[in-house]
Amino acid sequence: MVDFEHQADMDKGKSALSVDKAGGDAAVARPLPRRRKLSVEAMAEGVIGGDRALLGRAITLVESNNAAHQQQAESLVTKVLPRTGKSYRVGVTGVPGVGKSTFIECLGMLLGEMGHRVAVLAVDPSSSVTGGSILGDKTRMAQLASADHAFIRPSPSAGTLGGVAKKTRETMLLVEAAGYDVVLVETVGVGQSETVVAEMTDCFLALMLPGAGDELQGIKRGLLEVTDVLAVNKADGDRVTLAQRSAGDLRRAMHYMPRRDMDWEVPVRCCSAQTGEGVEKVWETVAGRIDALRSSGVLDARRRKQALRWMWALIEDRLMSSLRGDAGVAEVLGRLEAEVESGAMAPTAAARAVLDRFMGS
Q1: pLDDT, mean of residues 301-319
Q2: Alpha carbon of residue 179 to chain centroid
Q3: Which GO MF terms are attached to this record (predicted)?
Q4: Can you tell me the mean pLDDT for 117-136?
Q5: Cα 138 to chain center, whole Å?
Q6: Could you tell me if 176 and 87 are in contact, meaning their C-beta atoms sit under 8 angstroms apart?
Q7: Beta-carbon contacts of residue 139 (< 8 Å; ≥ 6 apart)
Q8: Pairing with 72, which of 24, 99, 246, 358 sits 20 to 30 Å away (CA)?
Q9: Is 22 inside a domain boundary?
């Protein structure tokens, strides 16, 4: 993972070449300065103090798969935890081509004008060949990326269900500790496990394209069941009437959908991220929803449950990592998989054999 904030700092006037004054115009190559090692305490202080470079390094630390780094990351998150929890956490999703990045940039600039500090956790699809992240969000949100009130961090999804990076939750806490009071989590797109995003945010916003009558056929029922606000984007030019018609179709469709909160009727708004029309109204709807949850005490209760789900997700993930890395399991796994594929052994029996080997039975 590239540390964008540190790299940007390195690039500010720090050329890899320096002029040898004694030798006139001769250019002498010198190595770029090495980044000094920091204690967890120093990094935590830097994050809380709003140091963007140290925030970037802290996120890189929590994303690392190195065992030693993971222990340091746990300590870091624990230290900044008292400074977290005060932001608006908003998930943003939508079908490919709906204009998520354009919408987020438009909204982010608007929020800056309103006095907010915005962190965008843009989850990039990982390369199927290298496993690396495409990391295009900083170029797709160029204006927002250069704004003082904003911090954009692309992270590779690495095949995680729902298009959510494994460490998105930890990253969310870090940016909150750094003083960003609005956290927008942009997902890869509409997928089977978008509920993962809904379970880590306060409000889940789904962007839709004009022409929802046809599009409804391709929308996952599970997505609409966890959506808090719907917004039909690209409601501009000759598409305004179509967008309004689509919004009506969506309102009618939502009447037949089970709701996550029976006291909340999912609102449908129209907007244009290109012109900015209606984007403020979408934000007012989202913020109003979160403010109502906070004032009623529901938000605190929901976040406590989210924390417990996060804990169990980590337990399951680490158990699977331990199982796959176990030498005893490795000895028998290939044979058991072959027997299951050939039909010589039932999957249930193979699973029991793997677990018995893992637990030393």
Answers
A1: 91
A2: 17
A3: GTP binding; GTPase activity
A4: 59
A5: 14
A6: yes
A7: none
A8: 358
A9: no
292 and 168 both lie in a single domain: yes
Instruction: State the residue for tokens 């750094």.
Output: 178
Answer for the pair 114, 99: CB distance below 8 angstroms, yes or no: no
Closest CA relative to residue 222, chosen from 206, 211, 244, 234: 206
**CA 239, chain centre distance (Å):** 30
Radius of gyration of the chain (CA): 24
Distance in angstroms (rounded) separating the CA atoms of residues 243 and 212: 8
Q: Which of 11-20, 205-214, 234-243, 279-288 has the lowest mean pLDDT?
A: 11-20
Would you say 55 and 47 are in contact if contact means Cβ atoms under 8 Å apart?
A: yes
> Beta partners for 185?
91, 121
Claim to verify: residue 192 and residue 314 sit in the same structural domain: no
pLDDT in tens, 67-100: 889 899 999 999 999 999 999 999 998 878 889 9
Distances in whole angstroms, Cα of residue 159 to Cα of each of 89, 137, 265, 316, 357: 23, 18, 33, 16, 28
Sequence-distant (6+) residues with CB within 8 A of 243 are 210, 232, 234, 235, 270
* Structure token digits, residue 20: 């040898």
Residue 177: alpha-carbon gap to chain centroid: 16
Residues 10-23, mean pLDDT to the nearest whole number? 38
Whether residue 90 sits in one domain with residue 216: yes
What domain range includes position 103?
Answer: 84-296
Q: Is 283 left (phi over 0), alpha (psi -120 to 50) or beta?
A: alpha
Tokens of 31: 């190595």
d(CA 234, CA 100): 11
**What residues have CB less than 8 Å from 111, skipping those under 6 apart?**
118, 149, 182, 283
In terms of DSSP bridges, do strands 118-124 and 27-29 run parallel, antiparallel, or are they unpaired?
Answer: unpaired
Please enumerate in sequence order all residues whose Cβ is within 8 A of that of 328, keeping only pairs 6 or more positions apart, or say none: 357, 358, 360
* 77 shares a domain with 204: no
